[in-house]
Each structure stands twice: as C-alpha cells, then as structure tokens.
Amino acid sequence: MQHRFSPALAHWRSASRTEIDHLLAAHHFVRALGPAGGPAAEQILHALVVQLAARFQRYCRDLHDAAVDALAAAVPDTYGTLLREAFLTGRRLDRQHATSAVLANDFNRFDLRIWSVLPATQAAARTTLDEVMSARNAIAHQDASGLARLRLDT
Known about the structure:
- There is one protein chain.
- This protein is an all-alpha fold and about 150 residues long.
- It is about 70% helix and about 0% strand.
- Helix 1 (about 5-30) packs antiparallel against helix 2, helix 2 (about 40-75) packs antiparallel against helix 3 (about 75-90) and helix 2 (about 40-75) packs across helix 5 (about 125-140).
C-alpha cells in the first residue's frame, strides 16, 4: 500500500528539510575550522534555529489549513464558508510562534488534544519545541539575557 502524504508534510520533508540540511552542513563545515570558525559557526547556528522555527510554523499552518479544507469540502458550500471562517478566525498560528500552547489551542478546535495522546517517551518533544521557540525569540529580538541562557549544541 502506498502512503499519500499531505502537501504540508511533503513540503516539510522536501524543501524545508533541504534548507535545514544546508544550514547544518554549513555549520559543521565552519565549526570544523576550530576556534577561528567559532563566531561564524554561532551565527550559522542562530540562522538555523530561526529557519527551523519558521519552517515548522509554516508546516503547522499548512496542516491546519488542510484540515479546515477537508472539513469545509465535506459540507455544502454555504456552510463550508462559515466553517472555514470559524476555524480560521483568531487562529493563533497566524500571529504567534508555534509553541506547544499555540498548537494545542489551534488544533483543539478540531477536538484534537495533541499533547494528551503523546506517549510519555515523546513528551519531551513538547519541551523541546518550546525551547526552540524561546531560542528563536532570543535570537530574533537580540535579547541579551535570553541569548546568555542559550545552549546551542549540535
């Protein structure tokens, strides 16, 4: 049986993965230069964190859009328009970062409790997600105290 992936997942696994892989390769290359490459490696790593956060947010928005489209397509056009508006109005992914709380809020609209279904072994994913978004904010806003707390290891 052949699996059919959503366009959101296909983009995440292709274009997003390629761009992230390019930044990782650049980081490893510059880091291999030793102490002389340290400042450049740190800047590349900062770019990587920001890019990862942005691309993940796009993936989440695209996935949410696909779910809305599927529901709207299942009802008459008039109701589909109303349904689409109800699911998209006030969507936090359109104005906030894809933190665990934002994802829970927006996907709860489908009665999908994304964090309650994760096995305990994957619960750390929620913490990691929030740490990445916190790192993204510290980098993007040049928050000196936030940057001082960052530990960006690869």
